Automatic annotation (TrEMBL):
CDD domains xref list: CheB-CheR_fusion (cd16434)
Natural source organism: Litoreibacter roseus
Entry keywords, A to Z: ATP-binding, Chemotaxis, Coiled coil, Hydrolase, Kinase, Methyltransferase, Nucleotide-binding, Phosphoprotein, S-adenosyl-L-methionine, Transferase
Pfam families hit by this protein: CheB_methylest, CheR, CheR_N, HWE_HK, PAS_10, PAS_4
Active-site residues, record numbering mapped to chain: S22, H49, D141
Keyword Hydrolase appears in the UniProt entry: yes
Name of the molecule in the record: Chemotaxis protein CheR
Amino acid sequence: MNDNSVVSSVASALQIVGIGASAGGLEALQGFIAGLPSAHNFAFVVVQHLDPDQESLLAELLSKRTETPVVTVGEKQKIEAQHIYLIAPGQSLTIKDGMLISTEFEHPRGRRRPIDALFESLAADQKSEAVAIVLSGTGSDGSNGVKAVKEGGGLVFVQEPEEAKYDGMPRSAIETSAYDLVLPVGEMVSALNDYFANMDDVEVDTLTSVEFLERVTKHIRYRTGHDFSSYKPATLLRRIAVRMSVLGISDANSYIRRLVENSDEASRLFKDILINVTSFFRDPDVFEALQADVIPKLVEGRGRDQEIRVWVPGCSTGQEAYTIGMLISEALERTEVAPQVSIFGTDIDDDALRVARLAQYPNTIADEIPGDLLAKYFRSRSDGYEVGTALRDMVRFSNQSLCKDPPFARIDLISCRNVLIYFSSEMQKSAMRVFQYALKPGGHLLLGTSESLTGDDNLFEESHRAHRIFTRRPGPSVKLNLPRMGGFLPQQSPMGRDPSASSVLSEPFAEAILTDFAPPFLFLSHIGDLVYASDAAAKYLKMKGGSAKLSITKLIRPELEPTVRRLINTKLAPGDVTSLYHEGEIDGKVVRLEVSRKLLNDDQQLLVLKDHYLSGGQDERPLLPEGDASRAYTQELELELDNARQTIRTTIEELETSNEELKSSNEEMMSMNEELQSANEELTTSNDELNSKILEIRDINADLSGLIESTQIATVFLDSSLKLRRFTPDAKNLFRFAKQDIGRALSDIGSSIDIDRLIEICSTVSERGMALEEEFEDKSGENFYRVRVVPYRSDKVGDGGVVFTCIDITELRQYALEAERNAELVKQGVAEIEELYRVTPQAMALLDHDLRYIRVNPGLAEINGTSVEAHMGKRMDDIVPGLREQVNRPAISVFETGVALEGLRVTGYTAAHPEDERIWDTDWYPVVYNGVVSSVGVNVRDVTEQVRTAAELKRVMHELQHRVKNMLSNVMALVSRTERIATADKPLLEDLSKRLEALAQTHQLLTRSNWTSAPLLNVLEPELTAVYGTDRVTLKGRNFPINSRAALSLGMAVHELATNAAKYGAFSNDTGHVELSWVRQDDGTEDVFIFTWKERGGPTVTKPDGAGFGTTLISSTIEGSLRGKVKMSWEPAGVSCVLTINADELEEKQDDGQFNLFEN
């Protein structure tokens, strides 16, 4: 493959851009499309979280903001440039082979991630041409998708979180580091145009030069400490070209200059090259094979003191390491004795390792991990899940490079998936040797589905082809080209002498060499205790040189303790060497200290410290972060190989080159085979589409047949010769059709309607190609039909005919006639109402909900002082502003409650009487239609004159009362004068005077009520309690109004009883008491009031010989005026009197107020 192809022109005729949005997305989308030019080469595919139960208005809303066509995707749709495609509610939208595919969601609501689905399919389909944009929204949907796009070399834009209405999705996408630019939506369209324009301008020839790649990788190594020179050039070129396009840089020298001047650019490019795409149980079938075939072998036969060791190079954010940990834990549960488990996850991306160590993941992992394992090994958090303690304890993460760092040893399983695909062929071979070295014989190697063994085929054998699982062959470990320690390291004596420090230093010559020329060094025991320290090493300890047996981690200087502890804990095989760097200040000098550890044998190890003092300024060599994995081993040059060995190496290389050429040819053949398979699949797809079309036509035909059978309308199909083709069952009601009539001429079939006229209409329609409609009457004259005849054309040229429907309109005609009659009645009723409004003397109006006049009669127009026409459409307070509150309140109340209000009085001025205050009585009533108050009617009566007459009458009555009272006073004066003259008749005159006074009091009481009625108690109390006090009189009964005649009669009767009691009865001494009670009795035949007068406590009473004047007066008044009954009793304890009067004689009513004291 020519590297030039990876950065060829990308500004093609179509650029597909996936856009993900959620809450707040409408606003962001509107802002985005506002920047679209009228012509462009983009196809935008928009996925938004929509309610599956509601119709989306997104297409309608976006169409108003752009000239670009907006389309809601159906099941499948071809993507075209200059279009905006929208997801349909309740559907998932993906891209395959340049087609949009809409399908129903597989997962329930709450677990759907449609944006991830779109982006992942876009990355798979468009690869390096994919563009993804994340806009406003909550949650993390889209975060996995942008990583897939970046992994494929595509472009990712993210809306600025500060601008987004909801920043959850933008921030989640940014946290993945899988993005190119964070922009306001208003700048994204311009950035897209610039990006693709710059991709065309990138200097291809310059980018592919070896010198350019060397300069870039060298600078990355200088800034980050990581060497990408062993990566595939095509991969590096693609990543660099995308980065240059994003920055708007087109030539190589400008980008090199940016790398030099901008310290962050190398880190950014480093992140772009390292695409951390992983997930739990990624490729589930691979892990099923691992669980079934590999892990049981790891667990089988292991004791409690043994260890299962797993290494996951390129572990990224840790999901794969934790996945293997879960599978091993599950297997261990089925064993009686569980061995120790150590899983080492390594990567060169510190940010990814930080996530792995934190072990906190979003809610989306619930879609990746089986539910039982999720519940067992994870703890739920508010924002996702956290790995449980037991699983975390068995997994350790560290920064380590496959390219330069020593591997782990005695490993049982290595899982290195989708890492080698980025390495060059030489680096892949080197990695195979590293894996063989690290694995135990029989250990297992798991590679990615697109990866294969490279280099020496004798290192591994294939154990599971489909899932790329290999087993290390037996035999010794290969020799690795790793950095080695210098020749100053002490060697074992061939005589097998004691390797203690004292023995080593016993010889003066060796001691001089170690003292004067060797770097600072320390001999340690196998458990890390200090055995010997050189004098030069003393400055790094808390003690002076000499022999000792104490832990080195306790003796080393505090600033060096973490580095030394890490070296001591690193697993090594005898002879292995590892190094770490420490940079800092020691004894006032800034140094870069290289600390190396070599395992001499199972009992001894050596620690060597080399000083690299920094003399101010930046060292030319790349600075290493503190604690970085052993990156800078010093590799001593080997002696030049002899000619024979060089010849053998050259021969091997030539054979390997030939093998690579053969493999390349084989890959080309496989590629051609894949192309043929792809073409075959396309043909199969086309065939499937044709079959689907046939099935669709068959379904349509079945639907049409079902429709014809189920419709209740008589429908008949005729061919161009007016022969019968098809008919519905209801057509048999008009035509004598039978199944065997298909193909017969319509004229040969009997019908209950005029068949000749029908044939004539059908012929006309067939000839002219236009529809006709006509009403038909059957032969009985009782039924009517509307016949509509329309032409139809078949896909076959020259084929066609007519179809007519016959709808029974008999009832419709009857309804129409009835409707006409009802309309006439309504018209007549409206006319009568209009006439009523016109001629009625009472003022009337009808109001709508806005209190506007919708109908007014002349009476109200006259009251308001304006014309009927001037009222229409006006509000009441516009016509009578001075009466606003008085008229608006009752109208609103009736609208709200639906309850009529009667007799409401309104006073004020109108245009008819601007200076004369008028008085009106108003009635307000609701007009209800369909249970709702549709309007309010009002009747208005001008009662100004009646009120004024009543006031005058009141005044006259008051004057009459005054005159009558004056007349009675004169009578009283006359009686009094007579009393003084006729002393012999003085008792009679006194009685007469009191009777006249009682009569005058009742007269005055009735005058105040215009002689209509008076309350019963108001009549009785002046005669009793006012004279004799409440302690001597008890009144029992309900107070109610009685008419004027009853008031005069009862008043006089009670006066006579009280006068008699004062002379002879209870009131004649100081201890007497009178009780007057009344009740109403209704036995069904007679409704009466019974008044009872009962005296107690007075002198002993005897029945008189004859009826006195008072008794006669009571009987005459009650029996004569009220047609009642009087019963007198003279008991020794006191007088009793019972008055029985019909209830209707007492009820309030109009009467003349006259009574005759002596009617009997």
